[in-house]
Amino acid sequence: MKIEGKSWANKGGFYGKTQNKSMKSYQQVITMAKQSDKESQYELGLMYELGVGVEKDLKQAFDWYEKSANQEHAKAQYNLGIFLALGKGVEKDIRQSKHWIRRANENGYSGASIF
């Protein structure tokens, strides 16, 4: 899917290959995410959305994006808006989708400017 690819591309190969010793593990990301680190919450959302290092789970992805989005993480706000627009892992809600995508744009995420 184009949206997922774009989201993944924005990570700049963050997770790399499994042989890469410098990549963050699921355990490192979850630990930081549970400590309310908005970047780690966003990364965990990506992991669950794409099934990287964990089993794909769109509900978990949505929940982690929402936590990050509530802390003004622009990419998480955009992804949350897309989930709501498409009904990915949640009930479709166009009004809320527009809200989150506008916030992403206001917070500087240029990908949201097309809305």
UniProtKB/TrEMBL annotation:
Which named protein is this? TETRATRICOPEPTIDE REPEAT FAMILY PROTEIN
Which sequence ranges form a coiled-coil region, renumbered to this chain? none
Q: Fetch the PANTHER family from UniProt.
A: DAP3-BINDING CELL DEATH ENHANCER 1
Q: Which InterPro entries match?
A: ISR_Activator, Sel1-like, TPR-like_helical_dom_sf
